[in-house]
Amino acid sequence: MVKFFARPYVAGDSLAKGLEVTRGLIQRRGVLTTFDLLSEDIETVEQVAEIRAVYRDMIASCAEFTDPRTRPTVSLKPSSFTVNARLATVDDGQSVSAPASEEAIVELAELAAAQDVALSIDMEDRRWTQWTLDVAERLWMAGHRHVGIVLQTRLHRTEEDLSRIPRGIRVRLVIGIYNEPAEHAIRDKRQMKKRLLDAAKLLFERGHYVEFATHDRAWNVRFLEEVVPAAGVGPDRYEVQMLYGVPMLRFQDDLVAGKIGRQGPVRVRVYVPFATSWDHALAYLRRRLGENPTMAFSVGRNLLRGSIGRR
Ligand SMILES: Cc1cc2nc3c(=O)[nH]c(=O)nc-3n(C[C@H](O)[C@H](O)[C@H](O)COP(=O)(O)OP(=O)(O)OC[C@H]3O[C@@H](n4cnc5c(N)ncnc54)[C@H](O)[C@@H]3O)c2cc1C
Fold first, then answer.
1. Which residue's CA is the closest to the ligand 1 atom numbered 53?
2. DSSP structural state of residue 73
3. Residue 243 CB less than 6 A away from ligand 1
4. Domain total in the chain
């Protein structure tokens, strides 16, 4: 059942298959990509070493795309580089200690910088938030302008994080996938999406590049037709992001063709996860479904739509 769900959302079980998908998206539809290796439930240092090696290959493969404007970026999850990351909490259980993850991220950030490949650090559950922002800030202070972060609008703390993050750092805005307790996050989805617009507005004012990542058409349109013109920024200051497999091809094509918004073609970037085995891919989806069961509904409905030909 989970495998049935996973297939449309995972670009394949090898780097080569992931690259094929990514090349197809740019060549056939003008859609950009960010590339992610699915790696869940890491239990040994050997696995961590393998993941680091695959990431090195990913960065080198992305660098081979000669046009920097269409070169894929790389996304990574900090927990992938820590053995038994679920247990990596400190003292109060509210934050993590993950030196191995930081070491890996620094190595990959340096490698990516040397090859002119942009890197995004995904945001995991709230225990990782401060840790991740701290690592990103240290990278920024070390001069790494190619590293981007993710902010989740469901979290209460995000309002303050928006004014604390390094001015100008690239930011992907999401509502957040992790179900967090009420003391840390809001529950109302509409409110989370409204916060996407508010956060985008603030980020533009502070000079950031905004990656607006939601599958909600209406809020994408509001971003492009309300926030962008009001901020007076050009199309080189933002992009729209979606996950591979979510059936929004027509909407993406309309964005790329400049039919939505007021500034002509919109950069669309699709998040393309691949795995080195189906086990990792299934672990990813299982965890996602466990954390956010409403996703099962979305996925099921979209699979059904896909199977009857809707785009
Ligand atoms: C490029 C990208 C990167 C992301 N990175 C992170 C991250 O680093 N950390 C994090 O916490 N979250 C991340 N997310 C997930 C994000 O936080 C949301 O959980 C997710 O996008 C669903 O919320 P939504 O805004 O799309 O709105 P929703 O209201 O959940 O979705 C709008 C519509 O899109 C469809 N839909 C949404 N998600 C799916 C899906 N997976 N499969 C099928 N259909 C779907 C549904 O039909 C739904 O009605 C990322 C999302 C994207 C697009």
1. 242
2. E
3. yes
4. 1
